[in-house]
Amino acid sequence: MDTATFFEKFSLFAQAEDAATRFREVVLNLAFSGKLKGTDLSGWETHPIGDFFTEGLKSINAPESPNQTYELWSVPSFETRVPEIVTGAQVGSTKRELRDGTILLGKINPHLNRIWVVNRRTNHPMIASQEWINVTAGDKWDTGYLARLLSSPSFNRSVCATAQGMGSLTRANTKQVAQIVVHCPPLKEQQKLIAKVDELMALCDQLEAQLKERDIKQAALAKAALAKFTENPSQENLQLLFHPSFSIEPDDLRKLVLNLAIKGKLVAQDPDDEPEETLCELDAAEFSLEILHGWIWTSLAKLAEINGGFAFKSTDYTEEGIRVVRISDFDEFGFKDHKVVRHAFSNDLQRFTLEKQNILMAMTGGTVGKSYFVRTLPEPMVVNQRVATIKVYDSTLPSYIDIVIRSEMTQAVIRKAKNSTNDNISMGDIKGLRIPVPPLAEQRRIVEKVEQLMTMVDALETQLDASRTTGEKLLEAMVAELTSA
User: Fold this and answer.
1) How far apart are alpha carbons 225 and 237 in whole angstroms?
2) 51 lies in a domain?
3) Same domain? 279 vs 411
4) What is the phi-psi region of residue 334: left when phi exceeds 0, alpha when psi lies from -120 to 50, beta otherwise?
């Protein structure tokens, strides 16, 4: 593959996640398995890597004689690239001594999988401590090829799979590492492969740098657009936030929209709107948000009836009956229709039935605080325990309360509550949630604007997903081209 073709195609699959890193891994794995395009498999041999290494010194003794001075490579010296000088050391075997070109393979954290090619600094013999495996290339190997093979992702994963111990004390099992099989092509083929690999790696480096530069510029544009909208929250400036070249993720845009909504910055205030004076107000000094004209702060309990679900027994579930909504049966996008459970209906379950315009909220587990605004009911349902049902009174729009609950302001309060109670929130936590309430007419305008903007964000996400899918397919095609004869 020529350079021009590579540049042209890389720009197409660059939208795939971690494209450059994955492409590097693909190239290395193909090269060291003999599958890279143009590779001649004649004369390839397979060997356990242990055929080419000796383990580092387990100990260093210092007898009275002979006095021999060594350069000692250990973890500290690896960090500084300056070996320790050890005088009076007894190695016990000349096989323990290192020579230029020996590859040190780290086998203990934090150096597991790191390699370094030995380069003599003095006339003293060199030795390595037990943190390293010494790999000697010998006549069959080009040192550069072997070094790249040992640092390849596939070989690294094989070494990590042998690691034993706990936490930072894990170390590779030398005997198991010795059994890892590697492919050894003829020397000329090794040199040819390394030249091709280096060419492709250099192209990846260059293109990755260009992508980073692009991302930096896009991030600066996005930041400028956010600042401009903050200074002047006009419709025109808001539209700038949805520019297709910006690197703002759709989920971040959704959070921004909700945050602006509860701050009263999405729509204009109307002095003729009737303020919500009938609700019990809270002390505005408790909150950092600005209190706008006609807005008040109150608790969720003043705006809605909030109940928990029924404590169903899993052994009582049936194939027929009314559908039971558990925490796992919904997310913010709707009901999940896999593993539906049901229960025979009785009058005792009447007060646990779900209705349209209700809001569901998870009270337990890893998804504490997730909510779903029930716009439609596909069938009659009852709610299981640890799922809260929020039934908003007529004085407030349920769709507006849904916006406040999903906002980062409310979710931060929920996270704080659940972190102090082991992934649980209480009914009291939910009832006590603070809600900023604008006049009813403004609530309607806010809901309409949020829905409009969320539709825009959904369209943007669809566009990004399509671009990434295309990038994935092009990356696969590039890999196929690299492996074709």
Assistant:
1) 7
2) yes
3) yes
4) left
Q: What is the pLDDT of residues 300-351, one digit of tens each?
A: 999 999 999 999 999 999 989 999 999 999 999 999 988 899 999 999 999 9
Residues 297 and 418 in one domain: yes
Q: What is the mean pLDDT of the chain?
A: 81
pLDDT digits (tens, 9 = 90+) for 275-304: 765 444 554 444 445 567 789 999 999 999
Residues 428 and 288 in one domain: yes
Residue 459 has pLDDT above 70, yes or no: yes
Asked whether residue 433 is assigned to any structural domain, the reply reads: yes
On whether the CB atoms of residues 101 and 137 are closer than 8 A, the answer is yes
Asked which of 184, 203, 228 is the last residue of a domain, the reply is: 184
| Band of residue 378 on the pLDDT scale cut at 50, 70, 90 | very high
Specify the higher pLDDT residue, 402 or 190: 402
Residues 6+ apart with CB under 8 A from 364: 327, 386, 423, 424
Distances (CA, A) of 440 to 83, 271, 277, 322, 448: 75, 13, 11, 35, 13
Helix 187-231 × helix 3-13 angle, to 10°: 40
Could you tell me the pTM of the whole model? 0.64
> Burial letters for 79-115: b for 16+ Cβ neighbours within 10 Å, e otherwise?
eeeebeebeebebeeeebbbeebbbbbbbbbebbbeb
The answer to the question of residue 144 being in a domain is yes
| CA separation, residue 278 to residues 274, 283, 296, 304 (Å) | 10, 15, 10, 14
Q: What is the DSSP string of 218-259?
A: HHHHHHHHHHHHHHS--HHHHHHTT-TTS---HHHHHHHHHH
Give the separation between CA 484 and CA 410, rounded to whole angstroms: 55
Contact 190, 140 (CB under 8 A): no
Q: Are residues 176 and 315 in the same domain?
A: no
**Is 303 in the same domain as 177?**
no
The structure tokens listed for 363 are 């009270």
Given 168, 184, 200, which residue is the final one in a domain? 184
Q: Are 85 and 121 in contact (CB under 8 A)?
A: no
Helix residue ranges, H only, 247-321: 250-262
Which residues 6+ apart lie within 8 Å of 460 measured at CB?
242, 244, 250, 253
Q: How many domains does the chain have?
A: 2
CB-based contacts of 399: which residues, under 8 Å, 6+ apart? 373, 447
Same-domain status, 306 and 422: yes
pLDDT over 70, % of the chain: 82
> Residue 59: is its pLDDT beyond 50?
no
CA distance 299 to 401: 11
Domain coverage including residue 167? 45-184
Residue 414 lies in a domain: yes
CATH number of the domain enclosing 106: 3.90.220.20
Same-domain status, 432 and 314: yes
Say if residue 285 is in the same domain as residue 421. yes
Task: Write out the two tokens for 210.
Answer: 């260009």
